[in-house]
Amino acid sequence: MSEFSELDRASAHAIRTLTLDAVQTANSGHPGMPLGMADVTYVLYKHFLRTDPQDASWFNRDRLIVSAGHGSMLPYSLLYLTGAPGMPIEQLKRFRQIDSLTPGHPENHITVGIEVTTGPLGSGTANSVGMAIAEAWLATRFNKDGVTLIDHHTYAIVSDGDLQEGVSHEAASLAGHLGLGKLVWLYDDNAISIDGPTSLSFSEDISTRFRSYGWHTLTVDAHDMSDVEKALREARTITDKPTLISCKSIIGKGLPKQGTSKAHSDAPGWDDVKAAKRSYGADPEAVFHVATEILAHWRAIGAAGTAAHFAWQQHLQLAPAELRAQFEAAVRGDLPANLDAALPFFDPTEKPIATRAASGKVLDTLVPLIPNLLGGSADLTPSNNTLPKDAGSLKRGDFSGRYVRYGVREHAMAGAMNGMALHGGVVPYGGTFFCFSDFMRPAIRLAALSGAHTIFVFTHDSVGLGEDGPTHQPIEQLSSLRAMPGLVTLRPADANETAAAWKIALQESGPVALVLSRQALPILPKNNGVEQGAYAVLDDAAPQLLLIASGSEVGLCMSAAKLLIAQGLRVRVVSMPSWELFDRQDAAARNALLPKDVPALVVEAGVSQGWHKYVGSHADFLTIDGRFGASAPLADVLRTFGFTAENVVTKALALLA
Amino acid sequence: MSEFSELDRASAHAIRTLTLDAVQTANSGHPGMPLGMADVTYVLYKHFLRTDPQDASWFNRDRLIVSAGHGSMLPYSLLYLTGAPGMPIEQLKRFRQIDSLTPGHPENHITVGIEVTTGPLGSGTANSVGMAIAEAWLATRFNKDGVTLIDHHTYAIVSDGDLQEGVSHEAASLAGHLGLGKLVWLYDDNAISIDGPTSLSFSEDISTRFRSYGWHTLTVDAHDMSDVEKALREARTITDKPTLISCKSIIGKGLPKQGTSKAHSDAPGWDDVKAAKRSYGADPEAVFHVATEILAHWRAIGAAGTAAHFAWQQHLQLAPAELRAQFEAAVRGDLPANLDAALPFFDPTEKPIATRAASGKVLDTLVPLIPNLLGGSADLTPSNNTLPKDAGSLKRGDFSGRYVRYGVREHAMAGAMNGMALHGGVVPYGGTFFCFSDFMRPAIRLAALSGAHTIFVFTHDSVGLGEDGPTHQPIEQLSSLRAMPGLVTLRPADANETAAAWKIALQESGPVALVLSRQALPILPKNNGVEQGAYAVLDDAAPQLLLIASGSEVGLCMSAAKLLIAQGLRVRVVSMPSWELFDRQDAAARNALLPKDVPALVVEAGVSQGWHKYVGSHADFLTIDGRFGASAPLADVLRTFGFTAENVVTKALALLA
User: Do the beta carbons of residue B545 and residue B507 sit within 8 Å?
Assistant: First the structure.
């Protein structure tokens, strides 16, 4: 164990003074957590965390996730102190200002060195579990032939709020189940929340709770560096369980209002900032100033990380060429060159097949070809068709499989997948029923915001699922996912569109939602426009009528079109699997496919909201508005909501009348 | 303790045979849980649960929530067996058929005697906590002057899946914190989930987990009636903690595939149904048949509940007239006759005030007048302005307050509020940031589906919240709430619209979302159309231009309109706080306010999705599309996204050019 000196304590205080100066300059922000956890974080950096401030992309770095993202001045201070070139002092001075690299909450897509975007409480806990799964999975694959390419820890700083959120329970339970021995949560146990003392609403025995999940638990004085170091060392010795270190901290330590909810957020005023600096033994008048000796000390810590990175690079050279090539391909996220050829083709003369089943067949093909793919489901494996042929499941102590049994934990699944995607070397996909996308919406949003390449597999995509009824039948989910910026939603109409959708999902850099049917759908005669978001499955050069649909309603429109054509009408049937991809097309292409002066009938088994944008004033909607679904066999449900070829014909003729 | 006889066992088997006959006839459904929990439920009904099958609305009945809603044949069988007039045998024969009273998952708005709508796992756990809070809160208010008007238990049947969902952790933690002594969860601990044995993903020590939350825990053999009775009796003796009874059950008990994931769902086939009936000692050939003696026994259990109801009604007569009148008003949900007069009026000459702050002032007025109102917040009380003046908080052992400290548990808060609303006697409201409505979306949906009168208070409603940045700034939330059937979303433009919105929220029978600003907004000169969903704040009989906005963008449009009018233009400014209320108006009124042949500029700090429906082809949108927000001070953020009067003018003139 180390002795900690005045320099060590002053180095921790540097985090505090930078935090206070930034928050007070911005007149906005949350000083409480960084001030409370400065000592813990200092010990972590000095003795444990290996990152390279000069190259934040070092693949084998330890990951530090600040789940309590409101404490964003903690990671920003650490980046500056350790010498990250992307975080000069000027950026700390521009904390929470427009276009700065120091936004209110940490955003990985904005700031180099930030691992994940956090702020909505709980999210970082699930991200950290995903990162630890990614580490263990990649280690199984790449630590062999005498080399150890992947061997890092994942640390997360979590708050009372994080641990109250349901997703933290789900994530912790999953982590305990899988025995993630390199995962350590540093719990900022400061007994204060926004409303006041946590005792207002929170009286769990946290250590007991985590032991019930299979974690190792420790408690330390967050301001006793030796105590912290001892706990972090002990955590290293526990290799078959994650570790929770409860750090008994004083929120806003050093501020006159330390230890109260008033120290959590908002600028304390310069007088209080000065008082805090005095309590640290720092110059009360110096602003954004770190003494030379202290900065040099921090830079040396940063340099040690750079040296560790260099050593790892040397070690990488020892790897056999083939293993190294595989590793580098995994890091880059290479896809097979022959992806198109590899995708299964479904013959239109074959019998109808549910798009979820087609998706399963696509995965049977793709998963062996793309070693980065790591699948899973929130306990709906047989329904989601997400388990590829012969794929094993990850188990405590054996991560050689290709599949994660997430349990009925949709939110943690999504958050863990985001963590894997942002870890790198993994392209995660995971399934649940489409209706339950609601449970993971905060994580889908964070994937969209942070650009995580996560693939969400949503089956049972409409009232067409039948008997399970309204609680399971999506009505508004398509519309509400389409409302989310940065997410590509794809609802393929048949098996071949499903294969094309998977190709797009793999090629996109951000998150993709695949929305798949429970029921069998006929295979369309033609399929060449999924990448454009919409295309004519059945065309007429001078259509009198547009039938526009997605997913299961495209086949319905094809049936109706035949009846309409038999009556002498000129009909174009447009399959529109993705609004987002269609919106990327130029205006000419969009107008050519969907001319606004042609009457249009939109057919989709969900709310009409948003469709008006794609049609002119002469349009009608065979959709489900103002009500939820119904529990009954498929045919009865479809009849109830008017999804029959006859009704499409009737509505179309009424539109043209 | 009782002796249990063959008749008792046969009575439990009646649940099983009805379940099997219904599932097999429908060729769809989930027999596993009802077969596994039949013995437990029988004991519960025989010795503990007091409900009146003849009058499901008896206010002081015990509540039984089937959180594992896929096991819907359990409550349907119980309703039939105890003689509920709304559940004849014909309805069991029509299980999962169109328009039956026996949909796939239990729906309280369809079936008399079902307490809450369940199916999405975990939801019932939070509902049950809300019901138990409602009971304890109302008991504090109405058990006095020598009478005990409220004194019931709340039971919930929960599955492995329920306990994996994050919301169950949140709900259990809250229940333990509040010491809800009349809450009992019956955990169907069958060790099987859809993917297979729960050991695939779930290895928690459940009893330890619940003890960490402050629960009393017990474990029983779910098929040993004496053991079950003993545990239920013990639970009654624990009055300061909720109780978890882990019922070690065999899923699908009696089926040849009992104890495996194949017994969870789907029809087992008539051969297996017959085999199961043989194992129960029942006639394998009889279908939908309950022996006379057994049915009579069940009906006697039902009759005992009716007698208990009668006794309670007698007891109610003993209450002092004033108390009784108050009680009956609470049950009816009476509002003050003078609601309009009671609402505060905000003078347009007063300085701007945030709608969240106006909401706080409205609550200061309303809460003392409406004793049914029970407020709360997910640890954002000072930000949400949800705590009325002088209101105390509910505490373990003291439920005399008017406010629940939910902790950072948005999902459980929403689910608990739904439970309170469906319990009756309580109109719950609860606050969080609008962005975090995502966390509670499954519960908002269930409120909308089941018609729960829950009031969601969402503050910090746009990028206008400023520095906290994209993780906290709603962009797509308005659109995604508007997509949900059955929910009224209101985004008032000023303090007076906020007061009107609260009035509507109280008068609606279903859920309402109030979407409120963080930043101060000017008080509009006029305010007389919130109830119609939209109205002209500034009118012109023959407008050349419509400016349509909601919330904070209405004031902006007013400023822009002045500039446009100064240029000689005829402008109508429409405030549109609620799409749903506007859609209830007739077509003539809608077209008169928003004529489609007048150019329109929609101004809203969120995605444009859905607005196209309300404007003609000559329209433009000053909205936020294709990106998330930005972290910066308010003025900089608004400028970045173009929400300035100058830009509204520019866009308007471009539209007219």
Answer: no
